[in-house]
Amino acid sequence: MSASMDRRKFLTLGGAGAVGALSVWKLADAAVGGLLRGQAPPGIGHVPAGAKALQLVATDGWASMPQGSLPVDPWFPDVMAPEGTDTYIFGFRNVTGHSRAQAEGQRGVTQISAPLVYVEAGKELWVTVSNVGLSIRPDLTDSHTMHWHGFRNAIPFYDGVPESSISVPIGRDFTYVFRPKADSAGTYMYHCHFEDVEHVTMGMSGVVFVTPPGQPDRAYAEELPDTDPACSRFDRQYAILLTEIDNRGHFNDAHIQATDWTDFQPNFWLMNGRAYPDTLAPNGAPDAANGTPKPPPGAGNEHLAHQPNSSLIVCQPGERVLVRLASLGFQQHSLTLPGIPMRIVGKDARYVGADTGAWVDTVDIGPGESRDVIFTAPSQPGRYPLFNRDMAKYPGIAGDAWHGGQRTEVVVQSGLDAQTEPNGWSL
Amino acid sequence: MAHNPDKSRPPATARRHLWAVLGIASLLAFAGLVPVGSITPSADAATGATSGVVCNRSSANGQSNFLLTATDGYVTVPDGNSIYMWGYAYGNGAFQLPGPTLCVTEGQRVNITLVNRLSVPTSLQLPGIEDVLADGNPSAPAFDSTGKLLSLAPPIGPGGSTTYSFTADRPGTFLYESGTDPQLQVQMGLFGTLIVYPAAAAPGQADAAYAYDTSSPGANPGDRPVYTGEPGSIYSASHEYGLTLSEVDPDLHVAVEQATGHVFTSADYTAPYHARYFMINGRSFPDTIAPNGAPWLPAQPYSALSEVQPFDPAGNPLPALLRYVSVGVTTYPFHPHSNHERVIGVDAHFLRDGTADLSLEKFAIVVNPSSTQDATFAWTNTEDYEASGVPVAVPETLNLTTGDFWNGTPYLGKTGPLNPGINQKTECGEYYHVAHSHDLTQATNYGASFGGMLTLIRVDPPEDSSCG
């Protein structure tokens, strides 16, 4: 959000939100006083057996678009950005298992996109959101939430919409409890719903998916043979979150300026928080000891410490590959994978079988939608581009028209180990 | 079918309080910004129902006869702006947005007379309706001598009128809109909904209705066709909602207003089109949740609030029905929170092919321009936390930011305190969930969050709660 007075004005204009703004201020005063600093996250410690418990810290930070991107004066690169970064972001980071003090120490250190999370249907997922405030904008007292987009039969308390529920003020924790039922398999998303248009596009978005009970190698609960087009069995799975960046909004947030979000016009298009060619770089990972972000291995990846999620799809010839596509951008997209037919087996976390599934060469996906797509890797090893077919969505640079857009690759090669985690890294 | 609150839902007296609170808040926001012009609510909108489809019916001798007037007026948006619009008045009544919802029964002959009180030619087109006659002749596109398309239907000059006739030969949700200079006239507000209800007898169950049926020829020539309801389209007749999605570029509307008397075409407006307001039923949030016929929204009679009670196989087995209509220029990714909706019809075609059920549960209802979708919706209290309690201690409200549409507890039908200064909107512990465009720039009023193409789903507690 913008400067404090602007923020009040904005909410007043929103009518019903006006009183909410006042409460945020009162709470902020308490938070600054640190009344309850140091308390254990509520809920952590008595998580039921079999449940997955995570702690995500919500804060701000900096990320980097591909090296060599053309400047968009004065918004990109941001003159305030620390060395090696260029874009102000909000985000979620995983601090599960770290101490309260370590979590607090992550203020100003975040990532886009958020950690990839999954849970088996019938089991519980507990997510504690810790709001540690914003380093660059201490004047902003924004709360945060976690909204599991598409969760079935949600109750408002765990739905994360500030106006119809609660949100998490600075200095506080809140534990969301999710109990996906047996029929809930599929690909969903999660994002902060506080001042949603701003917090989502600033980077507080990620993929969460549900596996069918007892069938970790299928997208949905069915037992069809591989030869059946509606079969959802896979050898490897990769999730890709589609988002966009309009650097004007990011710059304005860092520089205490208001943004008219109806002016939104992206200048970068991202997969898992990175634009091409960064999409191809391997996963990064935080330092296991202290949680400090580390860039992905390899020369030229030093700028990606705050964008740990790769979009590279690696598989062996003949393997079945599930791609979980989700979009939390604001635009409609079409992805294509030339030379490899794709079968849509799920839409919006719902199995589409023989009647409603489809063979496609292009996958359409709009804001807030998901698609589960399976393909069989070609027998011929090689690199197969997977990209947004809307060629107007690539800023490009001299010598590389794909630069800055939604393009990744399917790399088919032999001799791989079995996949142990989705995307090679997930929670 | 009109939305009739039944006895299982909270009495109107209990609900009036909420609307009074919201109404006053809205009036304060609009203080001093009363729209110009003579605007009174459509008589047909004043049914007393708080939300849900408001039907205009005019049926006699197996025919439905309607009079629409293309005219102009103003709507208000929640940031206080007042926007010049064109729209369809019901009969000789006042301008309204969207146009009146016209309801007919399958098999009826429908006659719609359109009177043009605008300063430019206009016409009516009905996507998906076949064999439309205009004053007895086929309603065909009009071209000039050079072959240039003048209008998708014979244009009606200022002051003129035309009667459009057709047979409503299949059930479903249709839209009507301007067929002349639609680039401008639909944006200006010339659109509305036509609902064709099936001819099949309703299911025997109380409050149950079919949205779709199939027809087969009668036994003998001249016999009435045999109509059979589609079991997959059963819904609660008292929980039927219309959601017409649109958007407004206010600069364009100012340009039109200032050019009154001038024959305006889209070519006159050279600045890039840029929508700033996003609407459901001609309203932007929070106006979307105000009741049908709210007096402070005189030209915007239709609420977009939907209301359900928890699914209960014995006591509340019927889903709500939502009729989505898009008259925008872009695809709207509409995201209802709380549960998936089952899309059962697209462009008034039931999603079944032989024995194949082509309906699909979606958490984004993606509605294309000039298209309609029918979806059923139910919410189930799967956890019943009211009995077990949530598994994590609820923090004191001082340690939370509390929203004014939150009941103060995790539980349905319970209320608890909110933080000081928060004016609690709930009446009896009901839940509110949002439903909105997930192009989140559209869930704003000119860029300000929690507005625009956004509404609420109200989940009322079961009958035996304090709401009753």
Structure description:
The complex is a heterodimer of chains A (427) and B (468). By secondary structure, chain A is mainly β. Chain A is 10% helix and 28% strand. Chain A starts with a helix and ends in a 15-residue tail after the last strand. Chain A has two domains: 4-215, Cupredoxins -  blue copper proteins (Immunoglobulin-like); 247-424, Cupredoxins -  blue copper proteins (Immunoglobulin-like, Sandwich), CATH 2.60.40. In chain A, strand 15 and strand 16 form a beta hairpin. In chain A, the strands form four sheets. In chain A, strands 10, 11, 13, 15, 16, 17 and 19 form a seven-stranded mixed sheet that branches. Chain B is mainly β and 468 residues long. In chain B, 8% of the residues lie in helices and 33% in strands. Strand 6 (166-167) of chain A pairs antiparallel with strand 30 (401-402) of chain B, so a sheet runs across the interface.
Task: Compile the SSE list and pairings.
The complex is a heterodimer of chains A (427) and B (468).
Chain A: H1 4-13, H2 18-32, E1 52-63, E2 87-94, H3 100-104, E3 117-120, E4 125-131, E5 147-149, E6 166-167, E7 173-178, E8 186-191, H4 196-201, E9 205-211, E10 236-245, H5 247-254, E11 268-271, E12 313-315, E13 320-327, E14 333-336, E15 342-347, E16 350-351, E17 358-360, E18 362-365, E19 370-376, E20 382-388, E21 407-412
Parallel strand pairs in A: 1-4, 3-9, 10-13, 12-21
Antiparallel strand pairs in A: 1-2, 4-7, 5-8, 8-9, 10-11, 13-19, 14-18, 14-20, 15-16, 15-17, 15-19, 20-21
Helix pairs in contact in A: 1-2
Chain B: H1 12-29, E1 59-60, E2 63-76, E3 82-90, E4 102-105, E5 109-116, E6 124-125, E7 133-134, E8 137-138, E9 142-143, E10 149-151, E11 161-167, E12 172-178, H2 182-188, E13 191-197, E14 208-210, E15 213-216, E16 226-229, E17 234-236, E18 240-248, H3 250-258, E19 277-280, E20 306-308, E21 320-326, E22 332-336, E23 341-346, E24 349-350, E25 352-353, E26 356-357, E27 360-362, E28 365-367, E29 371-377, H4 385-388, E30 401-402, E31 431-437, E32 444-445, E33 448-449, E34 454-459
Parallel strand pairs in B: 2-5, 4-13, 18-21, 20-34
Antiparallel strand pairs in B: 1-2, 2-3, 5-11, 6-12, 7-8, 7-11, 9-10, 12-13, 14-17, 15-16, 18-19, 21-29, 22-28, 22-31, 23-24, 23-27, 23-29, 25-26, 31-34, 32-33
